[in-house]
Structure formats: structure tokens, C-alpha cells
Amino acid sequence: MHDENYNEEPPIKPSIPKHTCLLCDYQTNKKKLLKAHEKAHSNAYEWKCAQCNYKTSRESNLSRHTKSIHEKIRYNCDICPYTTTRTNYLKEHIRFVHQTKEKNSLGLFSDTTDEP
Fold it and tell me: Is 19 helix (H, G, I), strand (E, B) or coil?
């Protein structure tokens, strides 16, 4: 039996809507992120440091500034002298600088840490 829809293309799934900044090439799938991004263009610095001239459009940036600049919080690598103000940078450092892949007895790879 001949199916008359045989040559028909499968239906295309609708794409996720993108929100695009009108002032630059920034795009996101979340409207909330676009609004936060657009604040940076408007110079709407709602968050100001009480200890210096630093100001920002995001509360999270002010918190990070306060911890790193005024509270002098640092995260140190236990393997080498590397130090940073951000935990995600330390995790990336350890992963890319100190971890290597070694085969275990089953021939599978496992993460190990290089010691100096």
C-alpha cells in the first residue's frame, strides 16, 4: 500500500525562543537573564560598596567584590602556590592542572591527582 505522506518531511519541533539584547549580540533563553544583562548597558548601578567607589548592577557582583577585596578571602590550592578569590576558579585549576587520567586494573580510566 502506498502512503501518500511518505515523501513528506517530518514536522519540525519549535525552537526555544531566544531573547536578544538590542544593544549588543547577547542572547539567552531566559528573559530574566536578559533584563539583568540590559541593566549593565543602562548604567543602573543599584548596588554600591559601602567601603569604596565600586558599584554594580548585580548584587552577586557586589558580594564577590566585598569578599575578595575588603574581606581578603582567598582559596588556596593544596598542591601548589596557586591562589584565587573564587571557588570555581580553584576547582578549574585543580581539574586542568593537577588531575590526570590513569587506567586502573580493569582498563577503565579514573581521576587521580598529581602530587608535586
Answer: strand
46 in any annotated domain? yes
| pLDDT, tens digit (0-9, with 9 covering 90-100), for 76-104 | 999 999 999 999 999 999 988 888 654 44
The amino acid occupying position 74 is: R
> Quick check: pTM over 0.90?
no
For residue 102, what are the β-bridge partners? 110
The CB density around residue 41, as the number of other CB atoms within 10 Å, is: 13
Q: Which residue from 113, 100, 91, 72 is spatially nearest to 82, judged by alpha carbons?
A: 91
| Nearest-angstrom CA–CA distance, 46 and 98 | 40
Range of the domain at 83: 75-113
